[in-house]
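**User:** My hope is that you can spare some time for a protein that puzzles me. As I understand it, each token names a local backbone shape. I would be glad if you read both lines and explained how they fit together. The protein I mean follows directly.
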Amino acid sequence: METYIESILPSIIAVLELMGIFVVVVSALRAFIHYLTGLVTGAERDVKFALANGLAISLEFKMAAEILKTVLIHELNELVVLGAVILLRALLSFLIHFEMKQTGHGGA
């Protein structure tokens, strides 16, 4: 069972990483289109919130991948590096959510 998990887990992790990348790209493009539309029409668009929301969602996918990576850890130094990455991503997520609350959109 352990061998099966170790063989399939890298694929699952890669899919989660790709999902996070996809969310960032789509969110950035969408925010940019909203920005351009706002410039042309003069309508006020909340581009910052839209982008921050996409980045927060992306970080959740990336964090899920990092958590699954803990199953594959075999040495202490790998765990330290992975722990640092998880801590940095959690801090980024917290900062993005804090920024979203400051702009008045609440969130979770």
Notes: The CA atoms of residues 31 and 73 lie 37 Å apart.
